[in-house]
């Protein structure tokens, strides 16, 4: 019971800021519509504002536009049906079908189709047989208020969006490599299956990184507050793109390591555990220069040691190559040029230079929350 309450409080804390923004936007939309409109109950305005802001960070602006299209289509369909047929069940059915059909024809997303239907239903239900164009004005006010909140007042920090997704996937990679190391040490097939399953599950985390890469680009393009930060966002997007390669090499490492038999497993386990530690450390502060430099140096040391050791069999050779791949991908994610990383591993001497990562910014507001 205590654990459930604690998790609920943590979830509430994580969503408190977006909830406050939605509440403020709904209130502002209601006040604006009440003072500018011609009727005392402009409920479309606060509804539109809340629904438009009910999206993941980086997607609220696009969500507002989709919602606005759906609301406009639904209200227009409802008003035309009421104007032509008056009230009644037939009018409701016709308006709902027409609104959804138009939304689909326009290539609308699910939220656009749903909002078109909902707006048509509400329009007919509250119209009392009378057309009311002010409802369209209310919806425009609500969606406009949401755009002001999402694009001007509280736009998400695009680099921070990427860093959160990077941290989550790196943490899972580190956990998967740690499971692999334990499976090798104990020669435990159950742990081996868990390690493989953990690595395969990285697909969802990597998909989230891809989604955040697209979202960060939209934020920079459409938000006035962050438009001048295009260069660091492009750098971090390219950096985050290397995680796909790192995820694939981690899966290959787990598969090849677990294909090794006998005492060779325990001999290979320390390298995997060191890689797990480097990735886990990187997951804590993926945007910190010292953390990246430390992780790159550890990965380079592991790759050099593995390169200098003589393989005992084809299986251990494949495992050594996979270890080098993971180590190299870690270095590349940290910002090291791929050719520089490969050269450093081959030469067995010299140091890596990790460039300063793109900084996050809290200007003009603390919007990275």
Account of the protein in words:
- It is a single chain.
- This protein is mostly helical and 369 residues long.
- It has 2 domains: 12-153, no CATH class; 158-347, Methane Monooxygenase Hydroxylase, Chain G, domain 1, CATH 1.20.58.
- It is 78% helix and 0% strand.
- The protein has helices at residues 2-36, 44-53, 60-85, 89-105, 110-127, 134-153, 158-186, 189-200, 202-222, 230-258, 264-284, 289-308, 314-333, 338-347.
- α3 (60-85) runs parallel beside α5, α7 packs antiparallel against α9 and α13 packs across α14 (338-347).
- The longest helix has 35 residues, at 2-36.
Keywords:
369 residues; mainly alpha; Methane Monooxygenase Hydroxylase, Chain G, domain 1; 78% helix; disordered C terminus
**The top level CATH class name of the largest domain:** Mainly Alpha
What is the general shape? elongated
In terms of DSSP E residues, the strand content is: under 5%
Query: Might you state the CATH topology name of the largest domain?
Result: Methane Monooxygenase Hydroxylase, Chain G, domain 1
Instruction: Write down the overall mean pLDDT.
Output: 83
Secondary-structure element series: HHHHHHHHHHHHHH
Number of strands: 0
Number of domains: 2
Helical stretch tally: 14
- Poorly predicted regions are 363-369
CATH architecture of the largest domain: Up-down Bundle
Short précis:
The protein has helices at about 1-35, 45-55, 60-85, 90-105, 110-125, 135-155, 160-185, 190-200, 200-220, 230-260, 265-285, 290-310, 315-335, 340-345.
